[in-house]
Amino acid sequence: MDEYARAAEALCATVEALPQDLFLRQVLSPADPDLASVQAISVHVIRAAHAHANYIRKARDLPSSPSPEVDLPTPAALRPLLAAELRYTEGALEGLYDAPEEVFTRLVFQVRWGPTYDPEMMLEHAIVHLLRHRRQIERWPR
After folding, report:
1. What pLDDT, on the 0 to 100 scale, is given for residue 98?
2. In DSSP terms, which residues pair with 116 in a beta bridge?
3. The pLDDT of residue 102
4. Nearest to 117 by CA among 57, 61, 56
5. pLDDT of 28
6. DSSP class of residue 26?
7. What's the predicted TM-score (pTM) here?
């Protein structure tokens, strides 16, 4: 979770450094509407973080919730929403921090994009997801 929090901090700082017009600016003919603007990417990141936590929650028979409605009118709006998703993920991991490895590896689930993951793999995926979009935003057309 420490690495996840670091990746979230870096993403938030990158987004917060953008002017409002760039945050909202749509690129021409985006192949994926989730990636049409930095604002859309930020919404996608929040929803994905929620989904990543839900995979772990469902594997552990913990309560899960549908993806939240996300309103991100400004770059600063990302930070509190992403922080809430990290807390939601922490709840999914409660009681696992000191668990033996075999407990982790028994908690397997298939993700919608095909492979079978365990909680550790999902967390690694979630971290890289934030890093990937931070890098994408750093290279966003100015």
Report:
1. 87
2. 110
3. 82
4. 56
5. 65
6. P
7. 0.94
The two tokens of residue 102 are 């075999």
* Amino acid 106: pLDDT: 87
- pLDDT of 13: 98
Q: Report CA dihedral (52, 59, 110, 118) to the nearest 10 degrees.
A: 80
SS3 117: strand
- Crossing angle of helices 38-59 and 78-93, in 10° steps, is 10
Residue ranges in the chain modelled with pLDDT below 70: 28-30
Backbone φ and ψ for 32, nearest 5 degrees, come out as: -130, 115
DSSP secondary structure letters along 79-100: HHHHHHHHHHHHHHHTTTTT--
Per DSSP, helices labelled H in the chain are 2-16, 20-24, 38-59, 78-93, 101-106, 119-138
* Angle of helix 2-16 versus helix 119-138 axis, rounded to 10: 20
| Residue type present at position 9 | E
- How far is it, in rounded angstroms, from Cα 47 to Cα 41? 10
